[in-house]
Amino acid sequence: MTTPPAGRPVKHSLTLRGHRTSVSLEAEFWAAFRLAADEEGKAINELAAEIDATRGDVGLASAIRVWVLNRYRSARS
Questions:
Q1: Model's pTM, two decimal places?
Q2: What domain range is 51 assigned to?
């Protein structure tokens, strides 16, 4: 498997409350999202479902990116 160039979105399938969906995030965001899920003791699908439930009319990929950014900003303060 080749690694996509930095910044190139990578599509992965997620299951949110029994519903399959695909999300495209940059590899760096996938890595940060997986690490955050591990640190919170949650499966990535569980964490994505929580974000999905509160995202309103924002796309899921954007909501995940903003969630990851805010999490790391909070950790620095």
A1: 0.88
A2: 14-76
